[in-house]
Amino acid sequence: MQESYLRWSCPRSLILLVYILAYLVAETHLFASPSTNKTRGAFSISSPDFEYGMRMPSHCAKDNENKPPTLLIKDIPPGTRSLAIEMVDPDNPSGVWIHWIAANIPASVRVLSADALPDETVIGINDFGNSQYDGPSPPAGTHHYLIHIFALNAILDLKPGFNYRRLENLMWGHIIERSTLMGTYSKNL
Predict the structure, then answer these.
(1) How far apart are CA 42 and CA 158, in angstroms?
(2) Phi and psi, residue 167, nearest 5°
(3) Are 177 and 151 contacting, i.e. CB atoms less than 8 angstroms apart?
(4) Which side of the chain, N or C, has fewer Cβ within a 10 Å radius?
(5) What is the pLDDT of residue 113?
(6) pLDDT band at 156 (very low <50, low <70, confident <90, very high)
(7) HEC states along the chain?
(8) Is the pTM of this model over 0.70?
(9) pLDDT (mean) for 90-97
């Protein structure tokens, strides 16, 4: 009896685990790769300031002009009511470092620049303790900076100064599509 139980319960448990993981991958952005925009549609983010995987310009750095790169948003999916943006440094020694979070960007926006964020945009607090963009500032070596843009089917209930966790919680279940732009930065170049 014991042998029969192991023969049937282990494969069923494994199948259940596979189904759960497949659901998480399909329904959340937690496991999405930068190529998400290529596999699910044409929604994309790019910048005239740097190409994917290349060095971000020095004017973006916190210890320089501290201006975000100009971002071009293409092919926003149907049903999008707002956009949200996150810029994070996954290479920070203390864990993922939040440089910039913003939400409720109108779905009609195709260009985000340092000079003109739409009035409806709500800016969150970053890990420097500021409600603004704070650019690359790696303590040493070359760091990667991921700029995620989310197409959302909702306008989020956020007040200025919200934190990253609140944004993530409110986006849950409202993400239509996501795209990522990755740049690098090093102080010694």
Answers:
(1) 28
(2) -60, -50
(3) yes
(4) N
(5) 84
(6) very high
(7) CHHHHHHHHHHHHHHHHHHHHHHHHHHCCCCCCCCHHHHHCCCEEECCCCCCCCECCHHHCCCCCCCCCCEEEECCCCCCCEEEEEEEECCCCCCCEEEEEEEEEECCCCEEECCECCCCCEECCCCCCCCCCCCCCCCCCEEEEEEEEEEECCCCCCCCCCCHHHHHHHHCCCEEEEEEEEEEEECCC
(8) yes
(9) 94
Residue 53 gets the label, from left (phi > 0), alpha (psi -120 to 50) or beta, of: left
Please say if the pLDDT value at position 101 is more than 60: yes
Is the per-residue pLDDT at 173 higher than 50?
yes
pLDDT confidence bin for 116, thresholds 50/70/90: confident
Domain topology for 33-186: Phosphatidylethanolamine-binding Protein (3.90.280)
What does the angle CA 188 – CA 92 – CA 96 come to, to the nearest 5 degrees?
A: 145
Give the domain ranges of the chain.
1-31, 33-186
Tell the residue number behind the tokens 């925009």, with chain if given: 37
For the chain, give the mean pLDDT: 84
Cα four-point dihedral sign 109, 29, 158, 94: negative
Cα-flanking dihedrals φ and ψ of residue 55, to 5°? -70, 135
